Fold:
Amino acid sequence: MLFRSMENDGEMYLMDELHKCRLSATNPANVGLQWQRSAGRVPTRGPIKVILIPVASEQEPNMYHGFGTWLESLHPAGSGLNHLEYANLLQRAQSYGKSWFDFTVLPSIVTLDQTIADYGIQRDNENRGTGFNQFMADVVTAADDVVDFSDYDAFIAMPPPGTVGYSPAWAQSPGSGVMADGVEMTNGTTLGDESLYWTQAEVLVHENGHLSGLPDLYDFAPAIYRHAGSLSQMSNPYQFRGSSGYERWLLRWIDDSRVRCVDLKRKQSTQIVFDSLSEAALPASDKDLRTLLAVIPTSSSTGVVLEYRTRKGLDATLPGAGLHVYTIDVNVSSMSGPLVSHRDDADTYGPAADPEDGADVYSRGVDAENSIKESFLRPGDSLVIDGYRITVPQDQVSFSNRPTFPVRRSGSLAVEVTRIP
Structure:
């Protein structure tokens, strides 16, 4: 069996010790957690070349008002990082320096033949998908005279403030994109009003996650962040802590050498020593590397995932450290819970949300932080999930000094996984 790389379509995976943990979907989607990467996505390592295109309509001259403020927000005067630089910082941090943006901002406004409102792309329009596809196609066509699209991996359409309330991504399959300058553009997104309510940098990184192939991990009801809380930026980008470990592995930011595929068919238990996912990956010259991610496959499309999160780096604001345990089902679609964190009370993961509430849906004031305390396993904790018992021993030093246990070092976490007969 072969597995297509998340890095590019040319790299293939032969059967190896991790192949059972490279989960595959029955019908792979454009965005999903399966290892069969959809063709046409942006690079996941190295630079991602992006052109930002301000757009408006000649029929609505009043819509030009406010563009100066809009553009200034990307490049604010004074010291400190602007939003594009901050987006780059976040992307580099969550990818351990393996991925970054190369942004270009078009200095002029591209005009469209029809008004933004005529496209019907507001969130409360049940037919908004058709209008959004046309809007993005028209942006490429209208900008083709001033933009050489062959120089870019993706584009960002920037409609005037007050015209689009959210920032949907446009991740098309080959053959469904738009031809320009001899290339087919299949990756784009917008900067809508939500980026004014909150922060543009986090929105940029989240939407690029879709262009890399990742699904939304949030939901609207009964609680918006009920599946993954704020432990992945594809769930809650406004409390930015980067992507989950499994997502980082999919995007080739975590090397295979740092992943443990747990197969207990021939033995009942195994022991793992985790390094913190929250800290920068150790250099390749360090021969004492520890596991960053463990996957227990429960079928060809499902698994239990373990990762150790600490109050370091992007996770500095975590309410505490511990073992994050979650399940993956790659056949579950975006916004339906393909990644679900273990927790005691799902209802504390955020307020019920009405899609018609617009930007108010994305409140920072979620209760997900309290649920992180409940969902993390700490020394002395144990849980049973999908036929396995996950144990974090209370006495970490004595437990990890057992002859069969890998040597534990400062800052790591010892864990035992047991198959329940």
